[in-house]
């Protein structure tokens, strides 16, 4: 498997860890623990800064080259590309919802808040699972060396701000809770 696809898979493994932490925080929020909202907010900032802004555009480039190579315009790619377009806005709205809840400005019930957070986590997970189960194996089977060479030129290598040796300050608490979870 080419290192670009391996890198995208690694991103998924990392995002899965973040989603697990979000799921755990959601249980606390459902029980009335508002401190958990802050960690939820940090996790959504991570999704905004890396998966939404860097990971998905990178996948779009791989999908484009796949389409060119195979002539395949399968519905699944359209679905994923559409989701890539929508997800940054979905994350912004999600952050706004959390921000309102943190500051006591939200007028929705806790039940409704929990439902909306669950929907966001599910959307992220389902999107990722579809790529892992259907699309990545197809890409791995189809793309040739010359395609990956082209992608090497098209894809820049911005690093992940959370899963790195130099974790950004704003993600330190989130990182600690993820590594605490793994331990
Ligand atoms: Fe994606
Ligand atoms: Fe992805």
TrEMBL record:
<feature type="domain" description="Hemerythrin-like">
    <location>
        <begin position="6"/>
        <end position="139"/>
    </location>
</feature>
<dbReference type="Pfam" id="PF01814">
    <property type="entry name" value="Hemerythrin"/>
</dbReference>
<dbReference type="InterPro" id="IPR012312">
    <property type="entry name" value="Hemerythrin-like"/>
</dbReference>
<protein>
    <submittedName>
        <fullName>Hemerythrin-like domain-containing protein</fullName>
    </submittedName>
</protein>
<dbReference type="GO" id="GO:0005886">
    <property type="term" value="C:plasma membrane"/>
</dbReference>
